[in-house]
């Protein structure tokens, strides 16, 4: 009978351990889902900014005159 009692205690202990482990992992998953949602939101904001900057007309600074320098001594 003592082996059966220790067996039950061992099973109950294992179940409690795994319940605790599942709770810990579920909390970690929720934390990671929140972080992922934040990253998705900031990524969409950055994508909008990049598209806006990529599609705008370039402007030169006032007084800037580009000079073409032809290199006649190229190899």
Would you give an account of this structure?
The chain is mainly alpha-helical and 75 residues long. It has one domain (1-56). Helices cover 71% and strands 0% of the residues. The protein has one helix at residues 2-54. The longest helix is centred in the middle third of the chain and has 53 residues, at 2-54. The radius of gyration is 32 Å and the shape is rod-shaped. The protein starts with a helix and ends in a 21-residue tail after the last helix. The relative contact order is 0.05.
Protein topology:
Blueprint (H helix, E strand, L loop, with lengths): L1 H53 L21
**Helix count, per DSSP?**
1
Radius of gyration: 32 Å
- What is the beta-strand fraction? under 5%
User: What is the average per-residue confidence, as pLDDT, rounded to a whole number?
Assistant: 87
Q: State the separation between the terminal residues, measured CA to CA.
A: 96 Å
Total strands: the figure is 0
Which descriptor suits the 3D outline?
rod-shaped
Q: What is the element string, with H for helices and E for strands? A: H
Low-pLDDT stretches are none
Main sheet makeup: none
């Amino acid at each position: 009978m003592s082996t059966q009692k220790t067996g039950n205690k061992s099973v109950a202990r294992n179940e409690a351990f795994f319940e605790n482990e599942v709770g810990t992992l579920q909390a970690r998953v929720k934390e990671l889902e929140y972080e992922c949602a934040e990253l998705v939101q900031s990524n969409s904001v950055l994508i909008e900014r990049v598209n806006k900057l990529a599609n705008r007309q370039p402007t030169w600074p006032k007084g800037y005159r580009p000079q073409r320098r032809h290199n006649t001594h190229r190899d």
